Amino acid sequence: MDAGQIGLVLLTGLQVGAVYVLIALGLTLIFGTLGMVNFAHGALFMVGAYAAWFLSQHHSYWSRSRPRPSCSSSSASSSNGG
Fold first, then answer.
1. pLDDT at residue 23 above 80?
2. Domain that holds residue 31
3. Residue 11 maps to a domain
4. Is the separation of the CB atoms in 37 and 30 below 8 Å?
5. Cα–Cα distance for residue pair 66/2, rounded to 1 Å
6. pTM for the complete prediction?
7. How far is Cα 45 from Cα 8, in angstroms, rounded to an integer?
8. CB atoms within 10 A of CB 27
9. What is the total count of domains within the chain?
């Protein structure tokens, strides 16, 4: 394996680890407030995973990643009285 493949494996591992951390934090937050584990959390995660898979199969990433002009920053500066 060359350095590019090692870097790709490391980044993929970090991404998967970040997803696991977010799931664990969500379950911890629910368990801390309710005092019981809500297993519907996993079902919502699967709905999100299926939606992401569907979008990745039917829409190109590169067609959505083009920068688009936004009017929010100009309207926010004008609404501050400046």
1. yes
2. 16-59
3. no
4. yes
5. 31
6. 0.51
7. 25
8. 16
9. 1
